[in-house]
Queue: 2 jobs
Job 1
Amino acid sequence: MIENFEKDYEVCNCHKVKLNEIIDAISIKKIETLRELQEVTGAGTHCRHCVFEEADLGKVKKKIYCKDIFNEVKYG
Ligand code: FES
């Protein structure tokens, strides 16, 4: 899924966190949990709509979520 997005795609609009920042945090900083990913990058720590689909209460739904990126980078 993540290969369908540009590396500078903004996953978290509140904190302007881009896809490549999230991927780097998971792979380089060895993030082990979704919560840790949020703490390190700031993604998903405001409105939380970008964390996972069920938490997306926005009018315009996100195209990709932190949880999906985490699972894909971590577990393939
Ligand atoms: S879009 Fe990520 S916390 Fe609001």
Note: DSSP finds three helices and two strands in the chain.
Job 2
Amino acid sequence: MNDHSFSKAEKEALYKAMAQRRDMRHFNSEPLDAKTLDKILYAAHLAPSVGLMQPWRFIRVKNSDLRKQLHAIVNEERMKTAEALGERKDEFCRLKVEGVLSCSDVLIAALPDKREKHIFGRRTLPEMDLASLSCAIQNMWLAARAEGIGMGWVSLFEPEALKKLFKMPKGSHPVAILCIGHVDEFYEKPMLEIEEWAKTTPLDEKVFEDYWEE
Ligand SMILES: Cc1cc2nc3c(=O)[nH]c(=O)nc-3n(C[C@H](O)[C@H](O)[C@H](O)COP(=O)(O)O)c2cc1C
């Protein structure tokens, strides 16, 4: 505790949002009000970014036909992923990996074109633009959870197909399809863990001292 720290209740709320945030793929049919979506986008815009580049761009997919075409792109990639997985194909096919058609709102999160002019912090690590956009998406995830709204990050798509569908500039790069909306309940733990697809590993396996430990 020091003069700059949040109150106990504020800290608890912050850690609660982080612990109870889930990647959601099941949504109910209740529409999301515009003000809440604005708040979630505002949270994105508060994120840190390399050289204050703010490399986030969002496309709100309002047209239902576009959403259907988007879903077809995701489904095509889902099938290709299933094939690439070999012996885990059937298990993967049983997983729910997106909620594009059932969520209230879909946003495409993308990196803009002309990113090469941003050199500060990216000369040796150009991928810091992606890291910055990811920070923005995490902010959205946390804000959505605090508002009681679910969000799912879908990365099963062919980027060029998305660029074509949404008339995106040549040098831009779509990174996420964000499915946002009301949910009946949040998963208690990662859905991939519930479905026994993968397990979370303890923190101490991720933290080394002095040298990288195998
Ligand atoms: C960069 C990124 C891409 C992801 N892409 C997908 C996806 O295409 N489909 C999906 O079902 N989940 C996707 N997820 C969600 C992860 O599966 C999920 O975060 C992980 O299983 C942990 O669950 P939790 O977010 O509920 O804690 C993605 C997450 C991240 C961070």
Note: DSSP finds seven helices and four strands in the chain.
